[in-house]
Amino acid sequence: MDLAWISVGALIIAVTLSMVTTINVGVVCLAFAWIVGVLLGGMSTGDVLEGFPTQLFVTLAGVTLLFSMARGNGTLERVTERAVRLCRGHTGILPIMFFFLALGLSTIGPGSIGATALLAPPAMAVAQRTGISFFIMAVMIGNGALAGSLSPFSPTGVVANSVMVRMGFPDLEWITFRNNILGHTLVAFGGYAALGGLRLFGRGRAGQAAAEQPVQPLEPRHYLTLTLIALLLVGVIGFELEVGMTALTAATILTFARAADEKEAIRGMPWGVMLMVTGVTVLITLMEKTQGLNLFTDLLVRLSTTESVTAVVAFVTGVVSVYSSTSGVVLPAFLPTVPGLVERLGGLDPIAVASAMNVGSHLVDLSPLSTTGALCLAGIPAGVDSQGLFNKLLAWGLSMTVVGAVVCWLMFSRTTWFV
Length: 419
Fold this sequence. Notes:
This protein has 419 residues and is mostly helical. It has helices at 2-20, 25-40, 45-49, 54-72, 75-86, 93-108, 111-130, 134-147, 155-166, 173-194, 208-211, 220-239, 243-256, 262-267, 271-290, 292-303, 309-323, 326-334, 338-345, 350-363, 371-378, 387-412. The protein has one domain.
């Protein structure tokens, strides 16, 4: 039991460090796992490293490499340009278009961070030219990107689904994805209306100049990239091919065809996030072996009832996620507690509890303290005062801890159909 408490303490320290420092907690978790398992628990190093998620690492590497190539060779940028032209200058439609464009890009592979990094600069430039509020545009871009972040092809979706498979809940990728889209769509369009977005439709074609900006031509390398991405989607959805190895194969084809710079793409991969995710997973697996996970689950059980658990877990994961990494820390740490919560509280749908954690932890990520919110802030044109947008995004992110709890309680209570 002492070793169980020590492993829980190690996780709490790691999560706290992720909230108050810039240290990569994946490294810290690997060190803690070795100290607790080998030095204190008498395990072998091999026993500890059995928790390293090899398949998860390969999947993350394949997906992020392919879309780092697609971003680097200009394919995703050209897709964005053509999507803006489809709005034909209708101001009210532009933020909505960016929501769905961010959703689509995030879904097919780059995830919320990649999609926001690509879309925030052109979207904020469009906002400046058309007089659209930077805050409204950030709310729509950020929530659109976050809505697609739990797709089976995005890095965060890969993390969440791999943890759920390990918990004994396979084949829930599309349910998880659907629930996340619903949650963010409700919040995004509710915010769009509340912040005055509907009044933009009265401006008519004030955004015509934005729509008429020249677009870069599609070259053979872009057509090849788009074809390979389409084949990846067909292969994974239609033929159940493994997404990581399929993406690596597509990246290899781009390399041999000289359609992308492989070295530059590898440098652009989120290695820090990948190390964080895999390191935290090793420590969580060790906690399972030492029975520490049961103690961690006890902490959540004491805060919850059968009726309130979806709101409680959404609020707790949201608070932690404001200051920490959702994919690297929050989901690997909290999702494994779902079976214990269901067993201890009784009468719960595990998918509802897991979905509340997924949605609640993501709704707060528009805070400028999170990467998605920070990218929206960084996307505003030079010379524009960013402090006002920073304050608004911070208030939005913090308020989402409460809003997210309410939304998740409404969506995932036992009387709803979302699960």
